[in-house]
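Fig. S4 source data, part A: sequence.
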Amino acid sequence: TTHDCRMRASASSTCAPASGRPGGRPVTRVCASPVCPTTHHRRRMSYPCKTTRLTSHTRAAGDDEFAVFRFTLGIPGFDDQDIPRVVGLLGASLLVLNHLSSANLSDAQSRTEVIGGCLAAACVALPALGRRLDETGSVTGGTLDVAGGEQVFALSSSLAADAPKAADAAWSTYALLTQTNAVGAFLWVDGVGVVCARGSVRLPTTGVSAPGAAAVTLAALTASAEAAVGLLELKSTTYLSNRGAIDTVGANTWGFLPPGVESVLVQPASNGGGGKVRLVLLSEKPRAFNAKQRAWAAAMANKLATASKGETM
């Protein structure tokens, strides 16, 4: 009978919610039986998973890649971010000249000069404001490639022989390169030399051959640091925030500095055993290390100083 047929169909068929929505709430109901138990009509089967894959594939195929080009004036020693300041000073000079050349000042001219003076002042202050905003920007650690440098990771033999100290040095340098804008870092210990290096640095063999063994890499960096004018005389935190500051102090002659580096941070510390250490960080970005990152570098310098305690030649 019709009643028996409906009962048998209901017992032999189950309806389950299609998966794919969080919480297990049904999206569409799919009958296990090709015949609906209530209407005896054949229903079209749905395949939500296949549709989702096709949609994802279509979306991925439609993604585009874009390249951003930055055009600069290319004037040596001039930062393009200072262009608004130059424009503001020029505008202020023209306002003063126009004011002095006017015999009778009208109300309209006075109001115009006030507005022009405010705009000129804003243009003069804009570069400084932009630099402060850049210093609070997000960290882009992890990209270690820099023009004129090559990536290294080297520990001194005595440091590598002590597993806990080696782990501290490896973790600290990794944290510096991922939690700050540094692309290269190395640790100098007075009386010993460079005992740890990681990231992009410049070696005598850069561009000629691949870096050698760890001892060879550290020896080359030690020689470069010893020849670096003024580096080992630094007693306090020194932050060279742009290429102009690097050129001013003569750091552009430091052999370990790749040409693509735009800022340098030197963080001294003490290892508790009477030895002085210096953590040197390099970045390809100008004004790369804000106050928070410099504080992080100071903490890591102290940690590395503790790990380097007892290092000898």
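Fig. S4 source data, part B ends here. The longest strand covers residues 193-201.
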